[in-house]
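[Discussion] Sanity-checking designs against the backbone

I'm trying to build intuition for which residues belong where. Below is a structure token string of 159 positions. I'd appreciate it if someone posts a full sequence so I can compare it with mine line by line.
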């Protein structure tokens, strides 16, 4: 997982998590290790986080398109990180756990292509965060989308 140094400087918790996820480059220990080496954070601002992902054969189904489970994992991981760029009243310093994840599949994208994931924090409170993600192909077409609800496990955020 890669992150621009200026983004990591602006959002230190985001930088810490990116380094944590990227530390096992090439070594698969956890489910996320199948995607993290191919993910890059390209833009971050209040309540919005943008990623790029390079699709390889290991991410695809038998039809040669990005596997639906991989799409769900990408939306899960990328939108979870978006909780760290919320600058409102309830800032979190941990990404929390999922309570709900919904994914829509519109256009398949094949190996050798790159997708862009744009995650938007819709609302973040003391214990719950609601994030919406749109996924675009290289031609700018919406391919997938997802809604994700996160629950913080950090008691400091609940104060």
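Best answer:
Here's mine. Compare freely.
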């Amino acid at each position: 997982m890669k992150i621009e140094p200026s983004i990591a400087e602006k959002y230190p918790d985001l930088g810490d998590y990116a380094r944590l996820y990227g530390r096992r480059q090439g070594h698969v220990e956890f489910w996320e290790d199948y995607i993290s080496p191919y993910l890059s954070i390209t833009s971050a601002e209040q309540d919005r986080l943008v990623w790029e992902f390079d699709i390889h054969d290991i991410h695809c189904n038998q039809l040669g398109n990005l596997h639906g489970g991989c799409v769900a994992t990408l939306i899960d991981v990328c939108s979870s990180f978006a909780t760290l760029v919320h600058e409102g009243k309830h800032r979190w310093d941990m990404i929390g756990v999922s309570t709900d994840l919904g994914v829509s599949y519109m256009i398949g994208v094949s190996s050798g292509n790159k997708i862009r994931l744009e995650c938007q924090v819709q609302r973040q409170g003391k214990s719950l965060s609601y994030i919406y993600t749109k996924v675009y192909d290289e031609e700018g077409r919406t391919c997938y989308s997802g809604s994700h609800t996160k629950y913080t496990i950090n008691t400091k955020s609940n104060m």
